[in-house]
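Q: Convert this sequence to structure tokens.
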Amino acid sequence: MTKNLLVINVLAFLATYVLQRSGIDLNALLGLHFFKASNFHVYQFLTYMFLHGGFTHILFNMFALWMFGSVIERVWGPKKFLFYYIVCGVGAGIMQEMVQYVNYVVQGLAAYEYVNMGGAQISMDSYINMWTTIGASGAVYGILLAFGMIFPNERLFIIPFPFPIKAKWLIVGYIAIELFSALSGPGDGVAHMAHLGGMLFGFLLIRYWQRHPDSSQRFGRSYGQEFFDNMRRRYEDRQRRQQRPDMHAEQSRRRETDEEYNQRQRQNQEEIDAILDKIRKSGYDSLTKEEKQKLFDQRRPS
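A:
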């Protein structure tokens, strides 16, 4: 999934420049506009995160996605990883819309029909249509947060520091820098609050999964898969009844209670957490064959 996201972003970046020569501006069509602007569409909450404004912009975002996203995907599996990525990207867009609305209200722009820009007078709708956000930064910052929460004590070498930094302190540093930049005032053309929004939505989603492990473990389960699983269980139950007819009545009465199911899920989650802790301390190669199989079964859609 990380590789697919990289390919989609690069293709969209190339398409932006190719179509621009034909007079088609993908940023204007698919970038996230202010919701009061005439060019705003709901689908832009999804499409904006696959567009970038320049080579440096896409280079840093894709490098971070490849470096940290591939690790998170191995832990969570592709479906859960993609869902998290999209939620962080959409959350970053929602945060950016909120910030733009605050600016819109504070500046009292609703009372004006025209705005003077560079000696020229343009309509208010044209002006707010310029408030366009593009980039995968919000989703990428959510991935950085996930890495810091899953591997808080992992040491990383980050330029320009000549010494390793623990992932949890790196994330704290990023939050502080983005918050300071956002409060310092606009002007650098970077949506700092969108970055923080991606991290905020990522944090809330991870906390929800931690408090509801059943929903996390069942993530990605399709109705078709559930149907075939039920068919398989019925067949196995029928085979067991045929082999042990004297136990048929007792087995028909015996069903797993909610408490037993929750206890089994908690025990399973504790085993997975212990394996992840072992990876953080000693690396993946330190796992036994049984532990690797357990982690593989956890990542596989159930």
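The two ends are 18 Å apart (CA to CA).
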